[in-house]
Each structure stands twice: as structure tokens, then as C-alpha cells.
Design a protein that fits this description.
421 residues; alpha/beta; Rossmann fold; six-stranded parallel beta sheet; 18 helices
Length: 421
């Protein structure tokens, strides 16, 4: 009798302890099928960076079958970087002629062009066969462009990461892009506004990168979208004592319209004002795929790097990081990395709304060319102020933006949809 009472007491204690464990410890290892529109390496794009680190963390507790689309040939070392996180790995190369054909189809339909660009009906059939063979507990897709591949899969919990509010991003581009792109952008904005709620209804859960992006979604159920932020590897992006050879740095994929716009603004609008007060100041525009207009900016005071093997080298060489983001959405990885490396940073209210740093203490905020120039000159001429801002920003990122902490909500979402199923 005593033994039975003891066993009952132990059972009740164990049950209570289980109830109070964090949610992701309440579910045993899951079989996850992950679909990406790009292979998540190298890490030169924000969606790749987000996918890579989420895969890295998901694979610690769950089995991952990664299925990734790609446009260009994949190098063996890229596979080697991703394979350790995958129980199984399958890639599909998109055909250029097929992509053009899909864009033509979109012109006579309602599907967003960017969704059609990444769609291939033959690949869809193979993806469906892989899902049937793998028999996952849940499916996780990244970006709206992957949604058509999962439209006809039922009976398995599905989660999609919108990542950004794409319709809002297109709307902002309408203010800056050339006139001849306006009809296409107007059409794409309307298509995305119709498509986003359709995708929301097809999936069991939807995630996005920030509250700001969630609030900019156009459909009524947006409050049910879950926020999963990006993070930064603090141990990798750590402060450096390298010699400072560049005064002002902006980094990112320099073929991406919001980054192109920022680079042109810096070179043509902000830096001439800086040079009035500090003629020797140098600007570096660092990042892959610089557009023609960005490449044309290079001169004896402006460096355009193109592809960089390790962006940390650029951060380490700079005195000030500037992100004049007036279009685009999402949380800027470039700011997270620069602040982690203890660089004093200047950005816009738009970018800081997603970041949440304290203006004046952890980051400087500017909106006009003159405000950016004045902030740059302040930090270049006042070493103590620059050091204080850099230290505060570094501390802020360290406390709030580790990848492990930021991926925890995704773990919970996946386990919740499996639990509901």
C-alpha cells in the first residue's frame, strides 16, 4: 500500500513538472518537411540567413527533410554547410525558360509575378511525392512563393513564413522606382493583397518577422500571424580591433531595390554634405550583386566591393554603419550584425520600428540627407559619443537578438499545430 502511494505521488510530481516545462520540451522529436524557394547558403540574402539559422536550431531537436529550389548551380561546399542540419536533403533547379513561361501565365491570371516566377508544376508533383514518402509531422515553408507547392497537400499541419509584408514593400517601391515600372508594381501590389489572405487560409499557422510587418498586412486576420524575429550569432559577429580604413559603411545585397536606393542616396545625397565638412571621408558599399547604377558610383572616395567572402571584414574596417532604409520591410540583418560588432549605427524610423532600439542611446535616427550627414559627422568627429552609442547598441543586441531565443517562437508554433492535429 505504501509503495502504491509513493508511486502515485511520484507520478503526480512528474506530471506537474511536465506541465510547467517550456512548450518545445512537451513534444517528442518531430519529422519536419521544410520547403525553401532558395538554397540557404551562402548567406548573402536575408531569406537565406533566416532559413539557415532556423534549420540549424530546428535540427537540434527535430528531424528535418529539406527541400530547396535554386536557380544557379550549387557548389559542393554549400551543400556541406547545410547537410549537417538535414536528415535528408533534396534540391530542384528552376529552369529559366520555365520561369519566363510562368511569368507570361501570370500576366493573364491573378497570381503574383514573384510567386509564378518560382513555380514549376513538375517540381510540385515531385515535392508532393516526397511529402508522401517522408510522412512528416508538420510542413514548414518560407515565403509566399512556396505556397502553390503545398496547396493540394492535406492532412498534415502546415506553417508558412511570410517573413515580410510584401504588398507593403511593393507599395513603398511605387514612391521611388522609375515610371516605366509603375504599371507592373501596381499590378503586383494588388495581386499580393489578394494572395496573402488566400495563403493565410490554406495554412494552419503563419509567421512573420516583426510586429510592424504584421500590422501592415491587408487582411483582417493579421492579428493571428505569429512574430518570429531574426537574430544574430554574437559569437561570430564579435567586436574586432582591425584597423579602421573606411569611415562610412552600408552593406547588403546591392542588387535588391531597397538597398540600391539606399546606396544611391548615400553616395549622391548624403556624402557630398559630409565631404563639405570632412573631405577625406570614405564610403564603402559592400555586398553581392551590385546593380549597374551602384557599380557606377565607385571612385577614389567610394568603394563598391561586390561579393565579399566574409562581411565581418567590412564591419571591422568601418567607423560608422549607416542604413538609410526608406523602402523595404522586415528586420534589417545588417543592423543586427553591425551593432553586434560594436559599430555605431544610424538608420531610419522605418528600419528601427522593427528593431526597437532606443533612439539616441542605442542607435541614431535620421530621415533627411542633412540629418544623415550631420549624424555621420557627429560620430566621426566625436570618438567618445561614437563609442558610447556602439557600446549601448552592442549590449542591446546581445540581450535581445540571439538566434536561439528568436527561433523559440517558431518551435512553439510547429509543436502547437502538431498538437492540434
Amino acid at each position: 500500500m505504501t509503495d502504491n502511494i509513493l508511486l502515485l505521488a511520484l507520478y503526480r510530481c512528474a506530471r506537474c513538472a511536465w506541465l510547467f516545462l517550456p512548450p518545445h520540451h512537451q513534444v517528442s522529436a518531430l519529422r519536419l518537411f521544410v520547403l525553401l524557394s532558395r538554397f540557404p547558403y551562402p548567406l548573402e540574402r536575408g531569406d537565406k540567413l533566416r532559413a539557415f539559422h532556423q534549420l540549424r536550431i530546428l535540427s537540434r531537436e527535430h528531424e528535418v527533410f529539406l527541400c530547396a529550389l535554386h536557380e544557379d548551380e550549387l557548389k559542393p561546399e554549400w551543400h556541406d554547410a547545410v547537410r549537417p542540419f538535414c536528415k535528408e536533403l533534396k534540391t530542384f533547379r528552376l529552369n529559366r525558360s520555365g520561369q519566363l513561361a510562368q511569368l507570361a501565365k501570370c500576366a493573364f491570371g491573378s497570381r503574383p509575378f514573384q510567386v509564378g516566377y518560382f513555380f514549376n508544376s513538375s517540381i510540385k508533383k515531385e515535392v508532393e511525392q516526397l511529402v508522401a514518402a517522408w510522412r512528416p509531422d508538420a510542413i514548414y515553408c518560407q515565403l509566399l512563393r512556396t505556397a502553390p507547392y503545398m496547396k493540394d497537400i492535406h492532412g498534415i499541419p502546415k506553417v508558412i513564413d511570410f517573413q515580410d509584408a510584401f504588398a507593403k514593400g511593393i507599395e513603398r517601391r511605387l514612391e521611388t522606382d522609375p515610371w516605366y515600372l509603375q504599371p507592373i508594381l501596381h499590378s503586383e501590389k494588388k495581386r499580393l493583397e489578394r494572395y496573402e489572405p488566400q495563403v493565410f487560409a490554406q495554412f494552419d499557422a503563419v509567421t512573420i518577422i516583426s510586429e510592424q510587418d504584421r500590422d501592415q498586412l491587408s487582411f483582417a486576420e493579421r492579428d493571428r500571424v505569429r512574430v518570429v524575429r531574426n537574430g544574430v550569432q554574437m559569437e561570430r559577429f564579435s567586436p574586432s580591433d582591425a584597423p579602421k580604413t573606411e569611415d562610412v559603411l552600408f552593406a547588403g545585397n546591392m542588387g535588391y531595390p531597397p538597398n540600391i536606393e539606399a546606396g544611391l542616396l548615400l553616395a549622391n545625397g548624403v556624402m557630398p554634405l559630409v565631404w563639405n565638412g570632412l573631405p577625406s571621408a570614405r564610403l564603402m558599399l559592400a555586398g553581392a550583386r551590385p546593380s549597374y547604377h551602384v557599380r557606377q558610383l565607385e571612385n577614389d572616395r567610394i568603394t563598391v566591393t561586390g561579393w565579399v567572402d566574409d562581411m565581418r571584414d567590412c564591419y571591422a574596417r568601418a567607423r560608422v554603419f549607416v542604413a538609410p532604409m526608406f523602402i523595404g520591410t522586415g528586420l534589417q540583418n545588417k543592423l543586427l550584425e553591425a551593432m553586434a560588432m560594436r559599430l555605431p549605427c544610424i538608420t531610419t524610423p522605418l528600419a528601427n520600428n522593427a528593431l526597437g532600439a532606443e533612439p539616441g542611446r542605442e542607435v541614431l535616427i535620421a530621415e533627411t540627407e542633412q540629418e544623415f550627414a550631420s549624424a555621420i559627422l557627429l560620430l566621426l568627429n566625436d570618438a567618445d559619443r561614437a563609442k558610447e552609442l556602439a557600446e549601448n547598441g552592442h549590449r542591446f543586441i546581445g540581450e535581445r537578438f540571439g538566434w536561439e531565443a528568436q527561433t523559440e517562437p517558431l518551435l512553439r508554433v510547429l509543436e502547437e499545430v502538431v498538437g492540434r492535429g
